[in-house]
Each structure stands twice: as C-alpha cells, then as structure tokens.
Design brief:
Elements (H helix, E strand, L loop, with lengths): L12 H16 L7 H21 L3 H17 L6 H8 L2 H9 L36 E10 L9 E5 L19 E5 L5 E7 L4 E2 L5 H8 L5 E2 L2 E7 L6 E7 L18 E2 L2 E3 L15 E5 L2 E3 L6
Parallel strand pairs: 1-11, 1-12, 8-9
Antiparallel strand pairs: 1-4, 2-3, 2-7, 5-6, 7-8, 10-11
Helix pairs in contact: 1-2
The chain binds fe (ii) ion (FE2).
Length: about 300
C-alpha cells in the first residue's frame, strides 16, 4: 500500500454524519449477540475503535502497519512465547484490567501475572528452598497470610516464581530445568517462609514486535526487580502480585507499569556468616525480607 495523503483533520458535517452512521450501524449489528454482556463488549469495542480511528484520522498506511504489527505478534506467539500479553503489558492494559478487578481496599494489592507462571511447580515445605540451583544471592522470605478481618489463613497455597541472577526464568532456557519456582502452604497460624534468590532486574523479551515498539518510542524493556506471588485459599479472592526490591533503579520506569508503592519491600542484606533464621549454612552474603499478605473475600469473579 502506498502512502495516501493525510486526511483532513477537519471533516465536513456530511463526513461526520457518515462516520457516526457507520458506528451506529456496526453497533446495531451486534443486537443478536448470544448474551447482553457480549453485546455490551462488542458495542463498546466498536465505539472506542472507531473513536480512535476518527480522532487520529488514521491513514490507510497506518492501518496496514497496525495489521502487519499484530500479524507479527501472532507469528512469534507459541506455547512458550505470548507476544499479545507482552503487548497488553507494555500498553498498561494488563495493569488497568487488574485495577478494575482488584479494588478491595484492605487487601494486598495485585499486579501483573506476567508470562512465566507454570501450573505444576514443585512443592517445598515451609522453610524450603525454591531456588533449586538458580543463580543468585540467597534470600529468606517470610510472612503471614490473613483475611481482611485479620484472621490467619491456614493452608493457603502460595506460589512463587522469579528470574535468576542472569535475568532469565527457568522456562526461557529451553532445557527443561525447573528452578526459582515452587509452592508451599501456610501453617495453622497463617505463617510461611522459604528461601529463594534476591530478585534482580531483567528485560521482558524484546526481540519481537513489542521490543520494536519499545525501541521506536525510546522505552526500556527492563522490569524492576521482583518476586512473583500467587496466593489462593478457599472462600478468598486469589491474589496475583509481586514484591519489589526497595532501591531498585527501575521502580519508577517498570516496562509494564506493575510497581505499586505498597508492594515495595526492603531486602536487607546480611553479612557473610550471619546466622540464618532456620540455621541453614549459607556461603557469603544473603538477604531477608518480609511480606504479610491480606486476601480479600471471594466475590465470585
Ligand atoms: Fe517477572
């Protein structure tokens, strides 16, 4: 497609009428949708998409470039690489969806799931090590799980996962290794603790179309250092979140807009030889942090 001349930013009244009539016609075409919700979603999508085209006076070349971009996102997506989630993340749509769905004031705040969660992670006992050979400085993480009444939640399933010191998740190595991920259950007092590695910053996969987009606008692909949590218990709203490392240089420019002040924690570095909470022998320095989790009531969402 060749570049067409820029359309006039000032459409005539007749043109405006034609554009508005088309929006009404498309919205009405969904009247027979199988549910009111589907009709609402498609109607709003149509109004907003057409609003975007009309506001920007989108050129045909730009439309074609957008289709080509989305096609490349599809081409690079497979079972292990999800470019559309990355796109949603860097546009802030993932965080906006989380904001809309996690508004319970007294509960721990949620943040993005990210693309590296794996369903079947190894079980570790309380005080166990989820690092499983991942490179990085040992880190002791402890806390409690409570509900919004302050009652301890026993038996909460706590999934944790993180990148290693080199900035990679186990699944990115492609050699079948399982490391820096696991799950454990809170005890009868809602307590939990585990060893992991001190989180370090890493780039989101930026060798595809989303990386090109970031480069075109001068944005960094780096994510602020974090440790992922997914915490679930019967009758309570499942929490997907991270804790972030206080002092990380990327806290104010996380590439997916995931940082929330309430989720920043001090990871206190301990000198070599310092006694560990569980008596484990650790070579060199290690760190420790605390994350007390509050789960919201289940609202059937
Ligand atoms: Fe992550």
């Amino acid at each position: 497609m060749t570049d067409s001349p820029s359309p006039s930013p000032f459409p005539s009244p007749a043109q405006v009428a034609r554009e508005e009539a088309l929006v009404r016609e498309v919205v009405a075409s969904f009247d027979g949708a199988s549910s009111e919700r589907l009709k609402e979603l498609l109607g709003a999508l149509t109004r907003h998409l057409h609003g975007f085209v009309r506001e920007t006076r989108l050129t045909e070349a730009e439309w074609a470039a957008a289709i080509a971009f989305l096609t490349r996102c599809g081409d690079i997506t497979d079972a292990k690489r999800q470019e559309f989630i990355l796109l949603s993340d860097v546009l802030g749509v993932s965080m906006q969806t989380i904001a809309v769905n996690n508004s319970y004031a007294d509960a721990t705040e949620a943040t993005v799931m990210g693309p590296f969660f794996v369903d079947e992670s190894p079980h570790v006992p309380i005080g166990g090590d989820v690092a499983q050979g991942a490179s990085g400085q040992p880190c002791w993480v402890e806390g409690t799980v409570r509900d919004t009444d302050g009652k301890p939640v026993a038996g909460a399933r706590i999934e944790v996962w993180e990148a290693d010191e080199d900035g990679f998740y186990d699944v990115q190595y492609g050699d079948g290794r399982v490391s820096a991920r696991g799950h454990l259950f809170s005890d009868s007092a809602g307590r939990y603790a585990f060893w992991a590695v001190t989180p370090t910053p890493y780039p989101i996969p930026d060798d595809g179309p989303v990386g090109e987009l970031l480069q075109a606008v001068g944005r960094s692909p780096m994510r602020a250092s974090h440790l992922h949590f997914k915490v679930s218990a019967p009758g309570l709203h499942t929490l997907v979140t991270h804790i972030f490392v206080r002092g990380c240089e990327y806290l104010d420019r996380d590439s997916v807009f995931g940082v929330k002040e309430s989720l920043i924690r001090s990871f206190e570095e301990q000198p070599a030889g310092a006694a560990t909470p569980d008596g484990r022998a650790v070579e060199g320095k290690w760190s420790r942090t605390r994350f007390d989790i509050v789960l919201a009531p289940d609202r059937g969402m």
